[in-house]
């Protein structure tokens, strides 16, 4: 049970919600906004007072005209922060309907009977009206409410011109007043809003790209580390299958373990396919681990590997190439002998025929990502069957001094 604004209980909070919504245009989010709007109203009252009758000469007219305009200005400032179009309509009586002073004076005697024609008439309240016109374009996304208000303002301007005699010079002043005081600030507000929207869209696009790059990095890390470890588990299971002296139940369990590791590798490949962003270029710097340490871990898992490292600086791609070659050999050629040769300009991983039936499916993205790394480094990658086995070879350009 929620009490209403009068302190009486009501069965639901509908009355409270309606009251809060009705007060929303008048709410201020901070004391700074309250002070700013109060100063705006004071400045507007000063300008209105300068436009009105002298209170010492004609106090009755001052009370009827100036004080009523102050109240109107207070209402406009009160709703103008959240409803600038309403404030713009409320300030219609304070619009640029006096054509005695203007931004410029032109001589149109060649066209009109009058020589001094005011272009863009200005009043002390004109900057405030232009400000609310700007806020309307800045905050209001719909087009028809400003268009309807502009038609209303135009009708007021037409009525003023007709009341003053309908001189062609008055029409020129009125049209320029509508354009300069209302239309141009509104268009500036629309332009500002669209620029901010474009900036926000650009920022969101950059954040989306950052998320995609992070997903691609996670996919690469999963492929390079977890995929390789699963392949080594499958190799150990394949070694147990071929080990002599095991009972049939143990051989069957080892085969089930090898199949489970292969299935987990396939599911990992599918997850990587969801995380990976093809347009994102893989990094050229792999994780820190020496090729010899990588080969040692693979050999400890049961793979038969021979390593030949030529003297000289080894490319940072060597570990990625060797890891991809060992992972593919473990998945697609279980129990095969593997030869690894690493030199400054060439990296080669070659495996013989499998000793047991492979359980992994082809079609992963490891070679595709590695090919892109090699391409970005200026090298070439060749992968395919060689004799009764498979070979992965990468040739790199001469390092620049």
UniProtKB/TrEMBL annotation:
Q: Does the keyword Protease apply?
A: no
Specify whether ATP-binding is a keyword of the entry.
yes
Q: Which reaction does it catalyse?
A: ATP + protein L-histidine = ADP + protein N-phospho-L-histidine
Q: What is its EC number?
A: 2.7.13.3
Q: Which UniProt keywords apply?
A: ATP-binding, Kinase, Membrane, Nucleotide-binding, Phosphoprotein, Transferase, Transmembrane, Transmembrane helix, Two-component regulatory system
Tell me where on the tree of life, at the top rank, the source sits.
Bacteria
Q: Which Pfam families match?
A: HisKA_3
Q: Which Gene3D superfamilies match?
A: 1.20.5.1930, Histidine kinase-like ATPase, C-terminal domain (3.30.565.10)
Where are its TM segments located?
Answer: 34-53, 59-79, 84-99, 119-135, 147-164, 170-191
Location of the Signal transduction histidine kinase subgroup 3 dimerisation and phosphoacceptor domain:
214-278
- Which protein are we looking at? histidine kinase
């Amino acid at each position: 049970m929620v009490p209403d604004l009068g302190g009486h209980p009501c069965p639901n909070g509908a009355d409270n919600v309606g009251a809060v919504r009705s007060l929303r245009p008048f709410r201020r989010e901070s004391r700074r906004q309250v002070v700013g709007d109060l100063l705006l109203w004071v400045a507007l009252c000063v300008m209105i007072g300068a436009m009105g009758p002298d209170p010492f000469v004609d106090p009755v007219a001052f009370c009827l005209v100036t004080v009523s305009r102050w109240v109107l200005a207070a209402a406009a400032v009160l709703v103008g922060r959240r409803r600038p179009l309403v404030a713009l309509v409320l300030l219609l009586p304070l619009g640029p309907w006096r054509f005695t002073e203007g931004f410029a004076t032109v001589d149109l005697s060649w066209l009109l009977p009058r020589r001094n024609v005011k272009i863009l008439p200005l009043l002390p309240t004109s900057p405030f009206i232009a400000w609310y016109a700007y806020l309307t374009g800045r905050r209001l996304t719909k087009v028809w409410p400003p268009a309807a208000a502009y038609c209303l303002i135009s009708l007021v301007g037409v009525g003023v011109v007709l009341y003053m005699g309908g001189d062609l010079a008055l029409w020129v002043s009125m049209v320029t007043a509508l354009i300069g005081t209302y239309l141009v600030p509104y268009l500036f507000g629309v332009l500002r809003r669209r620029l901010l929207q474009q900036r926000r869209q650009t920022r969101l696009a950059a954040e989306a790209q950052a998320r995609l790059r992070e997903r691609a990095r996670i996919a690469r890390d999963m492929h390079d580390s977890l995929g390789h470890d699963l392949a080594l588990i499958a190799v150990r299971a394949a070694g147990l299958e071929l080990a002599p002296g095991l009972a049939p139940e143990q051989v069957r369990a080892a085969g089930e373990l090898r199949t489970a590791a292969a299935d987990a590798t396939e599911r990992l490949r599918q997850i990587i396919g969801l995380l990976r962003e093809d347009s994102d270029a893989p990094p050229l710097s792999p994780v820190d681990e020496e090729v010899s340490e990588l080969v040692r871990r693979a050999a400890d898992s049961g793979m038969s590997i021979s390593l030949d490292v030529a003297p000289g600086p080894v490319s940072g791609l060597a570990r990625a190439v060797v890891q991809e070659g060992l992972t593919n050999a473990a998945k697609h050629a279980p129990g095969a002998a593997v030869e690894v040769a690493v030199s400054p300009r060439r990296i080669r991983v070659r495996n013989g025929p499998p000793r047991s039936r492979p359980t992994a499916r082809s079609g992963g993205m490891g070679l595709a990502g590695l090919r892109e790394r090699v391409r970005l480094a200026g090298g070439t990658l060749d992968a395919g069957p060689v004799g009764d086995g498979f070979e992965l070879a990468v040739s790199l350009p001469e390092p620049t001094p």
